[in-house]
Each structure stands twice: as C-alpha cells, then as structure tokens.
C-alpha cells in the first residue's frame, strides 16, 4: 500500500483550499475546443464530497435560468485549473441532496459568520 500511495502522491494537487459541504465554490476548468484552449468557471454550492486521495470528487450544483445543473469534478484532475471558496456555508449534514427538491430561496444555504 505504501507503493501505491507513493505513486499517487506525485499526481495530487497540494494547493487545494479548505472546502466543505455547503460552501459556495468556483471551479475553473480547462476546456478544449478544436485546437484552442480556454478556461471556464463553474460556480455553485458544494453538495457532496466523495472518496479520498487521488480519487476524490466534488459535486457542485447551481441553478441557472430556473434549471438545476450538477457537475461532478475529480479534484486532482489535470483539467481542473483551480478551486476557490467564495463563501462558507453553515450545514449540519455531509450530503446536501435535499437541495435537489428545493427551488428559489429555499435552496439557499446560510452563511457561516
């Protein structure tokens, strides 16, 4: 197991910010269109963190034009340019899947002061 940890350690990103479930995060992704590359930001509420180590993923949910959109990002992927925490959220659960059924102000998470 130490050999596996040693191999995967070199591919992990050391500069990840402190992010917890309920936080509003901005994930910047490198997108390739033809022969051009550009960075695109996806900002939303972090509703789930899964796995750990090199396999860690986060699920980010946002509502745009009244339609909910969720994306699952592998945190240590080379296509992820940066992850930054915009605001901290005050929650009491590990997974916020109940936000899928909420619309409008009911889908908000209170800010931690």
Give your account of this protein's structure:
The chain has 113 residues and is mainly beta. The chain has one domain (2-107): Roll (SH3 type barrels). The chain has one helix and five strands; from the N terminus they run αβββββ. Strands 4-3-2-1-5 form a five-stranded antiparallel beta sheet, with no helix packed on it.
Describe, in short, the structure shown.
By secondary structure, this protein is mainly beta.
Distance between termini?
41 Å
What is the level-2 CATH architecture name?
Roll
Overall number of structural domains: 1
Strand order of the largest sheet: 4-3-2-1-5
Q: What is the general shape? A: globular
Helix percent band: under 10%
SSE arrangement, N to C: HEEEEE
Poorly predicted tracts of residues = none
Task: Determine and state the CATH class.
Answer: Mainly Beta
Task: State the major sheet.
Answer: 5 strands, antiparallel
SS-derived structural category: mainly beta
**The CATH topology is what?**
SH3 type barrels
Number of helices: 1
Mean pLDDT reading: 94
Q: How many β strands by DSSP?
A: 5
Our estimate of the beta-strand percent is 35-45%
Radius of gyration: 15 Å
